[in-house]
Specification:
This protein has 432 residues and is α+β, with helices and mostly antiparallel strands. The protein is built from 10 helices and 6 strands; from the N terminus they run αβααβαβααβααββαα. The chain has helices at residues 2-13, 20-30, 32-52, 71-80, 115-181, 187-222, 246-252, 257-277, 321-387, 393-427, and strands spanning 17-18, 58-68, 97-112, 231-232, 283-292, 304-313. The strands form 2 sheets. Strands 2-3-5-6 form a 4-stranded antiparallel β-sheet. Strands 1-4 form a two-stranded parallel ribbon. Helix 2 (20-30) crosses helix 5. The longest helix is centred in the middle third of the chain and has 67 residues, at 115-181. It is elongated and about 140 Å long.
């Protein structure tokens, strides 16, 4: 406990006291999962740029070298070099001929069965899906940060109650030992208090560990190292109101980023299927090349030449590769559709469960408030009876334990309501 207090003091001196708002800002800035998804968005943008490159001309430069004594090839190279002389040499035995050809070639895809168009649309949808997935992660992250923040506050409050219980039992035990030594109290009463003290200390140890566990979870969400100081501000948060009707919440959830991202994945699969089906259509490309042929790389405008044309291709048989790609795309579409349906069902169930949890927690807050008042009154009456010697010290301690448990239940119910409200907001996608 002393080390925990020392850590808190160091955190406060270092200016690392976090309100819920500051914790959320830190999580949005430091959580590595958000950085990972931002990198995926940039990756999707790069894939979009790669897909759109198909709509631009492709230009490349090349240099080729050939040496041949084949009469037909050698004759063609001599003609390309503009040095044909019918009076020189034997065309049937030309000897070795060298040919260097530097050239620039530009090509443009005229039609590829719609493949470039559909893949470009799929890449655009991929960027949108990645951005929606980041919004969905933000939605989850803010809920988790809120739950961890209130979880630590609940653990701190429970720890204070457990410390008070230890101090109260320890004080009664010291007095009872004095009374036992004076002969006015039975040994069994002292032993009973020793058992009560051991149980109270055990509860205090568990409550202290709960604080550390909650803080470690919060540090992970905030992107902080295990050794970095962290302390949370103990602020009194207002209880959430009664949740809206399920149908109203379900209507709000229609814009949930997870639902939208899942639908984008379905649209991507549809575009990829259309692109795969385009393999059965012809492909047309236009091209133009400019270069020159020479024996020694010496460029001359007298030897340059231009070639332009259009090629049309159609796969008559590809070993069933096109059919298999179509089947693969069809199954990917079915998988995306089922994933979207699964996401919708999960969100509907999470929404229903979160609404029930919030309603239950708010009811527990009311019941716990009544129980605390009753426990306080019972302790007051038992205390008066104990002072008058009517009841034993064991009965008095039991009344104190009951009061402490009532306070603990009230604390847990209150923070459960705050966590349930955050979970409900996540369920209908409030944090985008």
């Amino acid at each position: 406990m002393a080390s925990s207090l020392g850590l808190t003091a160091h955190a406060e001196s270092a200016g690392s006291v976090y309100t819920l708002e500051r914790a959320i800002d830190q999580a949005l800035a430091g959580n590595p999962e958000l950085s990972i998804l931002q990198a995926r968005i940039e990756q999707a943008n790069a894939q979009l740029g790669e897909a759109l490159a198909s709509f631009y001309p492709q230009v490349k430069a090349s240099l080729s070298y050939q040496h041949s004594d084949n009469p037909a090839q050698a004759f063609a190279m001599i003609i390309a070099q503009r040095r044909l002389d019918f009076n020189s040499g034997d065309f049937n035995h030309p000897g070795g001929v060298d040919n260097y050809r530097p050239q620039v070639t530009a090509s443009y895809s005229l039609f590829r069965g719609g493949r470039d168009y559909y893949l470009g649309k799929a890449a655009e949808l991929g960027v949108e899906a990645s951005e929606l997935e980041k919004s969905a992660l933000r939605n989850h992250l803010l809920n988790n940060v809120t739950a961890a923040y209130y979880g630590e506050l609940a653990a701190v409050a429970a720890h204070k109650v457990s410390i008070g219980a230890v101090d109260a039992v320890d004080s009664e035990l010291r007095q009872s030992r004095l009374r036992y030594e004076a002969g006015t109290l039975l040994k069994s009463e002292v032993l009973s208090l020793e058992v009560q003290l051991a149980e109270a200390k055990d509860a205090e140890i568990q409550a202290a560990n709960a604080i550390e566990l909650a803080q470690n979870m919060l540090k992970t969400l905030l992107g902080l190292g295990a050794g970095e100081p962290l302390s949370i501000a103990e602020a009194e948060a207002a209880l959430p109101g009664t949740p809206a009707a399920y149908e109203e919440l379900l209507n709000q959830a229609r814009t949930h980023p997870e639902l939208q991202a899942a639908q984008k994945r379905v649209e991507i699969a549809e575009r990829q299927l259309s692109a795969a089906q385009g393999a059965h259509l012809p492909r047309a490309d236009a091209y133009v090349s400019y270069g020159s042929d020479s024996r020694d790389l010496a460029f001359s405008a007298n030897r340059d030449n231009v070639t332009a044309g259009v090629t049309v291709e159609l796969d008559l048989f590809s070993g069933f590769a096109a059919q298999e790609r179509i089947k693969k795309a069809e199954h990917e579409l079915i998988a995306a559709q089922e994933a979207a349906r699964q996401t919708r069902l999960r969100i509907e169930n999470e929404l229903h469960s979160a609404r029930l949890k919030l309603s239950e927690a708010l009811n527990r807050v009311q019941v716990a408030g009544v129980a605390v008042l009753a426990a306080e009154e019972a302790l007051r009456q038992v205390s008066e009876q104990y002072q008058a010697g009517v009841v034993t010290v064991t009965r008095y301690i039991e009344a104190e334990v009951a009061r402490d448990k009532a306070h603990t239940r009230q604390i847990n119910a209150r923070y459960d309501a705050l966590r349930a409200d955050a979970e409900l907001k996540q369920a209908y996608g409030a944090w985008q």
